[in-house]
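Mods, move this if it's the wrong board.
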Amino acid sequence: MEQITTLSPVALGFLGSLAAGLMTAVGATPVLLGKTPSRKWRDISLGFAAGVMLAASFFSLIIPALDAAEGRYGDGAIPALIVCAAILMGMGAVAMMNEMIPHEHFSSGREGPEAVSLRRVWLFIIAITIHNAPEGLAVGVAFGADGFTGGFPVALGIGLQNAPEGLAVAVALLGERYSAGRAFGIAALTGLVEPVTGFLGAAVIVVAQPLLPWGLAFAAGAMLYVISHEIIPETHRSGHQKQATTGLAIGLVVMLFLDVWLG
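Not the wrong board. Structure tokens:
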């Protein structure tokens, strides 16, 4: 553990987001064993993932962003304006990717421009990549901002919520008549965008410290968009909204506890 804590923030950002991304494969493992949880339990687990992301957005990203902005600009309206603007920019960036990049959700259909030449599975992979990129960014920015202490709770939380997402991806692919092995492989690959954005997020923050509050809040905004646009609607689609909300509440308090305890 001591050797890990002495690594540079950029290296920590890459390794932390890689570990979190690999949890997608861990979550998809049941399909290899021929076991798939019921839709209700999948919705509960995705609700848990939403709660973890929600807590991480506020307690691990937005509040540190405000602290960083106040440390640079003092008390007053400017820190709040910076964080508010960066949150909206993060949400807008993911929304723009949704509009400009062709992709498809198995449950809600195609979004973005038409792309007849792309096979359906690639459209689905692109959709999950858009979804996972902000999570890797959040981990990288957190490590870049405060090293191991700041990044570890975020990486742990994102890893926890990646597991049910990996299972959801693999089960959706099984429903499209993909073999268990191929469904697992594709689900595992979708998590590998996270170390890319994690590395970039950590590098930018380390090189340009004045961007710290912007980067933290931008990553939070990107995750908030994914929570609202993707995860919560998916958990309510099959009539399990009460159970999914319970999962969200548990995920939120678990991430809050981890952030306070480990941070």
